[in-house]
Amino acid sequence: MTRQQIKAELENRLDMSNIPAHIGIIMDGNGRWAKRRGLSRIKGHQEGAKRVKTVVRYADDLGVKHISLYAFSVENWARPSFEVSALMKLIKAYIVRERQELHAEGVKFKLVGRLNELAPEIVKEADISTELMKNNSGLSLNLCINYGGRAEIVDAVREIVRSGIAPEKIDEETISRHLYWPEIPDVDLLVRTSGEMRTSNFHLWRSAYSELYFTEVLWPDFDDVELLRAILAYQGRERRFGMTSEQLTEQEI
Ligand code: IPE
Ligand code: IPE
Ligand code: MG
Predict the structure, then answer these.
(1) pLDDT at 114 over 80
(2) How far apart are CA 232 and CA 122, in angstroms?
(3) Are 105 and 60 contacting, i.e. CB atoms less than 8 angstroms apart?
(4) In this predicted model, what pLDDT tens digit does every residue of 97-109 receive, in sequence order?
(5) Residue 72 beta carbon below 6 angstroms from any ligand 2 atom
(6) What is the model's pTM?
(7) In this structure, which residue's CA is closest to atom 12 in ligand 2?
(8) Secondary structure of the chain in the HEC alphabet?
């Protein structure tokens, strides 16, 4: 079968009434992809950055409302400094280079993470994109940079304390409202590439009831067909949210 035939076959099986509203992707495996080819890790990151376009465009076509891409964690500062600076350059270049095309496609853009620790020019370029695309109606591309799930909760707690809310008034809704970009909903489907089975501090709060999907595919090899496989796996799950299977069947009736 050709790639197109495989894609058509998988698309046939898709239930368009059950597309995850928010997909989070831990884009892992760039370094291993490069190493297998005798290339530098930086080359792996460059190839990885190229895959973003295909995946975002296809997710938007399918009606996904949010895609959160984990591109740099708070822990990634511990990498060799030349790799960190190459990643930061790549991220900034990506934001600038893709701006007009993303806008033309009707996508929205958000930078998600501890922004005050990032180089101001990255935040500035991201702000330009967010502002330009804020009235678009397509998918929201949430680029997670200097993001840590624990850091996000710490920052939310700081804000809550600063605002002087009485402790007995604090509930889960209060925490949700103080996360970075509170309008970003819970993650329905959390994908991690490269065979690692951990979430590495991604979207802790919003992934409490996410369906997890792990694939051996390295991020630079991930494409629309791989996204389809992930969504089909999601559609095969029963999301019970603590209830029994029977209760869910009754609800459907
Ligand atoms: C993911 O690829 C990109 C970032 C974490 C920035 P890696 O660089 O972690 O690739 P591996 O895990 O070493 O293969
Ligand atoms: C997670 O990948 C972070 C990103 C993809 C940005 P890592 O490669 O940093 O995660 P660990 O260290 O293997 O858990
Ligand atoms: Mg990795």
Answers:
(1) yes
(2) 35
(3) yes
(4) 999 999 999 999 9
(5) yes
(6) 0.97
(7) 200
(8) CCHHHHHHHHHHCCCHHHCCCEEEEECCCHHHHHHHCCCCHHHHHHHHHHHHHHHHHHHHHHCCCEEEEEEEEHHHHHCCHHHHHHHHHHHHHHHHHHHHHHHHCCCEEEEECCHHHCCHHHHHHHHHHHHHHCCCCCCEEEEEEEECHHHHHHHHHHHHHHHCCCHHHCCHHHHHHCCCCCCCCCCCEEEECCCCCCCCCCCCHHHCCCEEEECCCCHHHCCHHHHHHHHHHHHCCCCCCCCCHHHHHHHHC
Backbone phi, then psi, for 165, in 5-degree steps? -65, 140
The answer to whether the CB of 219 is under 6 A from ligand 2 is no
Domain 19-150+186-237 CATH (choose: 3.40.50.1970, 3.40.1180.10, 1.10.10.10, 2.130.10.120) = 3.40.1180.10
Testing ligand 1's pocket by substitution, the residue of 25, 26, 28 carrying the most ligand atoms inside 8 A of its CB is 28
Q: Is 28 a catalytic residue?
A: yes
Domain residue spans of the chain = 19-150+186-237
CA distance 249 to 240: 10
Query: Residue 253: what pLDDT?
Result: 56
Ligand 1 atom 3: residue of nearest CA: 28
Residue 61 pLDDT > 60, yes or no?
yes
- 76 is annotated as an active-site residue: yes
Count other Cβ atoms within 10 Å, centred on residue 123.
Answer: 18
